[in-house]
Amino acid sequence: MPRQYTYGPFRSRRLGLSLGIDILPKNKLCTYNCVYCEIGPTKEIISPVYRIKAPPSSNFRKELKDILKYVPHLTSITFGYNGEPTLNENLLDFYAITLDVRKDLKWTNEPPLITLFTNSSTLYSRDVRERVKHFDLVLAKLDAATENDLISTNRPHKDCRNINIVVESLVKLRKDMPNKKLAIQCLIYNSYREDFISNDNKENIEQLAYAIKKIKPDIVQLYSIARIPSEYWIFAIDEKRMKQIVKTFKEIINNDLIEINYY
Length: 263
Ligand code: SF4
Known about the structure:
Blueprint: E1 6-12, E2 16-21, H1 59-68, E3 76-79, H2 91-104, E4 113-118, H3 126-132, E5 137-141, H4 147-154, H5 163-176, E6 181-187, E7 189-191, H6 202-215, E8 219-223, E9 234-236, H7 239-253, E10 259-262
Parallel strand pairs: 2-3, 3-4, 4-5, 5-6, 6-8, 8-10
Antiparallel strand pairs: 1-2, 7-9
Helix pairs in contact: 1-2, 5-6, 6-7
Bound molecules: iron/sulfur cluster.
The site of iron/sulfur cluster (SF4) has 10 residues, from loops.
């Protein structure tokens, strides 16, 4: 039977051995069109109020079980990969089956985390946060903390261009999931174009740190481009710059309970 929902498992820099779960249609569905997106440009940028109804087919449970029994050392079952998974109204149906399958199997170490990637644009909705809060680990994107940087880096749908709403949604999500882990992911890059200001600018980096201080996530994951980006005129920042950003973050956030890592 061809695989419909799963990718990998593969080695992830941040998650260890991870099995990818894609619950979106095969064409990319996203509210953003990030300059660095590794799955190519978003052909039609979707409003954050748009939802698809795509419940798991009867194959999902079987497909998951068939793969998971071969990887008792898996560390994460990770929802994401083809756009924004919270756009699927049936996210929790997939989660419930995954939880059930995980319970039934034997694991070499701790059972894998059930992890969700989100670009954070839909989290203003209480319904979405109610679904998201169940995941063991939520990896929420925040590359920008000024409106200009949000627009230039993530190129969002016109209905999700307010950076204050995004940050406030993350503050609310943190409160909604006190016993689960929230990681903020910041992808920082640079640009070869003189007429384009990348998100690696002083104001954005400082405002990001202030936003994180307010959100109080468990973890901050800083990283840069590792695969072919959507736009040819951007490039990865180096380790030296990454360390400077970590230093700025630590100075402003000033909270030892927040773990700051870079990759
Ligand atoms: S949010 Fe994710 S999937 Fe959507 S465009 Fe950005 S990187 Fe790509």
